[in-house]
Amino acid sequence: MNAVIDLRSDTVSKPSDAMRHAMASAEVGDDVFGDDPTVRALEERAAGLLGKEAALFVPSGTMANLLAVMTHTRPGDEILLGDQCHIFQYELGGAARIANVLTRPLANHDDGAIAPDAVAAAIRQENLHSPGTTLLCLENTHNRCGGAALPVTVIDELAAVARERKVAVHLDGARVFNAAAALGVPAARIARDCDSVSFCLSKGLGCPVGSLLCGPGQFIERARRNRKLLGGGMRQVGILAAAGLYALDHNITRLSEDHANARVLADGLRKLAPFRTNDPATNIVVADITEGRLPDWLAAFEQQGVLAVAFGPQRMRLVTHINITRNDVDQALARIASIAGAVPV
Asked: Lowest CB count within 10 Å: 107, 136, 208, 307, which one?
C-alpha cells in the first residue's frame, strides 16, 4: 500500500521531532495568571513580527477572529467583510451569534480584494434607523480565492478608506507569512495599516495548535478578557507556545518551498484533461473538474492514496505544506495520471 499523500489542508501537518523536543522541554506556568514565560515570549515575538504593540495566544484562528470582532465592536454594530472570506464562510456565524454584530458581505474579486468604492459606499453612520459600521475585515492570503496574496497597496488603500471614515480594520492573516513570502515583504508591512491581525501557527508553520491575535496594548487587554469569556483561558500552555516559538524561528523561511511545490502540482494537473487549475501564488491549488463528478474524482484520488477536499460543486482544493516534499508531489501526479481515464464522464 502506497503511503497516503495528504493534500486536504496545511492543518494536517505534524510537528517535527525538533518541535516536539522544544515542547517537551518548555518552561511553563499558569497563563491565566500571566505566569507562563514561554507564552509571554511567544506573544512578544509575534507582536514584533507583525509590527504591533502586543499579542494574545489563543487556541484557534476562528477564536482569534471572533475575539477581534468582539473587541473592535459593540453589539448591534455592523461589520463589512468579503463574501468569500473565512469569517463569513467557515466560522459558523460567530460574529452574529456571539459578538452580536450585523455582517454585511461585499463581493470579493478573484484575487481576494474588495473594491474600495464598494467599501466606501457600504459604510454607514449610526442613526435612529441604522447600525453604524465599525469594522472592516480583510483576509490575506485568501483561502477561497486560491491562496491569493493581496499586495500591500491593496491593503493600504482599503485601510485608508476605512480609517478616513473612522472604521477599524482587522486582517485575518491565518497564512500571512505565506503572503509575505509570495510578496517578498515582511509580514509587518502587510499588517502595517491594520488595527489588528491574526495568524495561525497550525497551518503552514507546522504547529499542532494555536493562533495569535496582535494589536495595540489596550486592545489586546480587552481581547484577553473576551478570551476568558469564551473559555479560551489556558493554564500551563507553554508546552504549545514552545511549538510556536520553534516555528517562528525555523519554519517561516521554508514556506517558499511549499509555494514551489504547489506550482508543480498545478502545472501537472493542468496537463490532465479533466482539471482546470489556478496559477497558485502560494500553497493552495484549486482545480475545477471539467469531466465527471467531483465525488467520483475525490473517491478515486483516495483509492490511490491522494487526499483532497471539495471546494465547490465541481471544484477541489489541494494544499502543499511542511510534510509534503517535491517527491510527494511527483508521486501524487503519477497516481492521479494513472486514473485520469478511469473515472466515468
From this structure: 107
Closest residue by Cα to residue 137 from 107, 164, 162, 169: 169
> What span, in angstroms and rounded, lies between the C-alpha atoms of 280 and 282?
5
- pTM of the predicted protein model: 0.95
Domains defined along the chain, listed by start: 17-250 (3.40.640.10), 254-339 (3.90.1150.10)
> Sign of torsion, CA 285 290 293 296?
negative
Residue pLDDT tens, the chain, 345 long: 579 999 999 999 999 999 999 999 999 999 999 999 999 999 999 999 999 999 999 999 999 999 999 999 999 999 999 999 999 999 999 999 999 999 999 999 999 999 999 999 999 999 999 999 999 999 999 999 999 999 999 999 999 999 999 999 999 999 999 999 999 999 999 999 999 999 999 999 999 999 999 999 999 999 999 999 999 999 999 999 999 999 999 999 999 999 999 999 999 999 987 899 999 999 999 999 999 999 999 999 999 999 999 999 999 999 999 999 999 999 999 999 998 765 555
- Alpha carbon separation from 297 to 266, 267, 321 (Å, rounded): 16, 18, 22
